[in-house]
Each structure stands twice: as C-alpha cells, then as structure tokens.
Amino acid sequence: MTGGQNLPSHGVGRILGLDVGARRIGIAISDPLGITAQGLTTLERRNRRHDLGELRKLLREYEVCEIVIGNPLRMSGQTGTQAAKMASFAAQLEEAFDIAVHLWDERLSTAEAHRLLDETNIRDSRRKQVIDKMAAVLILQSFLDARAANGQLTIDTHELGE
Fold first, then answer.
1. 145-159: per-residue pLDDT in tens?
2. Exposure of 119 by Cβ count < 10 A (0-12 exposed, 13-18 middle, 19+ buried)?
3. Cβ-based burial of 3 (10 A; exposed 0-12, middle 13-18, buried ≥19)
4. Where would a tag sit more exposed on the chain, N or C end, judged by fewer CB atoms within 10 A?
C-alpha cells in the first residue's frame, strides 16, 4: 500500500477511486488511458463481506489494476483516527484483491463536492449519494492529474501506435 502523494508504478487497466464513509462508499472509475475520472455509483455499506463482494464485481467488470482511496488527513496534514481507519481499509482491500491500493489526500474533496452540487440545485434524497460519488471523482481526478504531471499514464501510448 502506498500513502501520501507518492506516485508508484502501475499496471495496465483502469483505476477505481473510493470516497469511503461509514454508511456509503462513493465510487469513481478512470477512463482506460488514466486521464479522466467519471462517477460510477454509490455503494450503501452493509458489512465487510457485502462491501468487498460489491467492490470485487466492479474490479472485474472494469478490469481495474489499482485502487485510490481518499485519505482524510487533518488540515495540518497529520493523520488522525479517520486516516488510520482508511489505512486499515486499504490494507484489507490490498489483501483481499491482491491489487495496488493508494491512499490519496482527500482534504476538502467533500466540501468541493458540496459546492459543486450547490451550483446544480440538487436538494433531494439523491444529494448524499451524489456527494459521495462526486467526492470519489475529485479524489481520483487529483490522483490522475498528479500522475500525468509526473509523466505517467495508465497505459503506454506507444502500445497504441502513437
């Protein structure tokens, strides 16, 4: 498992982004080139077995090679109770799926998702699910942008004949 803002090497395939909460997991997926993130779904959490089963389905369906989990650091950058929970969850995913799992700074991602949704005037029961999914998009897009800035793409463009 990688933490902080390190950008490790990676395999070929899509990247799954997760905004993990106690009740829901917002889920985003990268495009095959690892350039853009799109909202996928919001998983209503039940128990570990159910959550891992649903995530396993998505990993297979989208041929995911990596997972990025929002790391809820304190504003000071220090870890706290929630960050420790995410590190534990990341370790569980890495063990269960034998896949690279990265923790990525998510400070202010939910606040930004709220701000963006305020602009759309979504106020009904869908808002909580949309917030979680949008936060996952923001987390994953930040990861993808940082990776691109370091000259790394999910697939080698030479393989495409470019």
1. 999 988 765 444 333
2. exposed
3. middle
4. C
